[in-house]
Amino acid sequence: MSGSVAQFIWYAGTALELAFVVCSVARRSFLRYFFLNLYFILTIGSSVARHLILGDFGVDSAEYRYVYFYTDALLTVALYLALISLYNRVFGELRFGKYVRFASVVLLLGTALFSYGVVAQSTDRLTTTSFAYELSQNLYFVGLVLTYLLWGAVMKLRETRTRLVQFVLSLGLYFSAYAAIYALVNLGGGPHSDSVVQIMAPLMGCFLPMSWTFTMWRHSEETRMMTAQLAAVPR
Fold this sequence. Notes:
The chain has helices at residues 3-26, 34-57, 62-91, 97-120, 130-156, 162-187, 195-218, 227-232. By secondary structure, it is mainly α.
């Protein structure tokens, strides 16, 4: 990917992320979807940090590698929290919120410990970006499974809130794409073949803010889907 194309994608993704935050404020939904907004705010900050480090040290530098993978791990955790907040909204009326939060913390800690255990098998890897890479990869897999479980709950409970349904659906597609990206990386030799992530991640990074911004702007919190429309959504 040429530098000009990569820069265009970076600007487009950052603009879409900012657009979601601005749209949330304009639609008076910032606090209602706080963790979704927090994720995009952190994404914007991480993108700026990566861009600055890239300009100073270059794409092949150890500094850029550390910043890239550790900010990616941070953003994956933030997206995981955004997913759990959607769980709370789906199950909130059933008073399952506290159980969802407890289970999510246990699962997050378990994933982090598992990732550390995998990396700790090689002492040398603890001083590299391997832990951040392993944590991101495992959390993306956990997020993929949880999103599809949430989608199953949406269908089972006949959830009709348009915003919520489309947020969950978009997140499922996003996690699926990232799971495929990490699978390609592993087939190519693990974290050393991160060029695939560097090319594909920015492209996929534009999809989620674009989809969520469109949903936030077009639909109000009171908008409901017809049951027939919900059943027609591909599972």
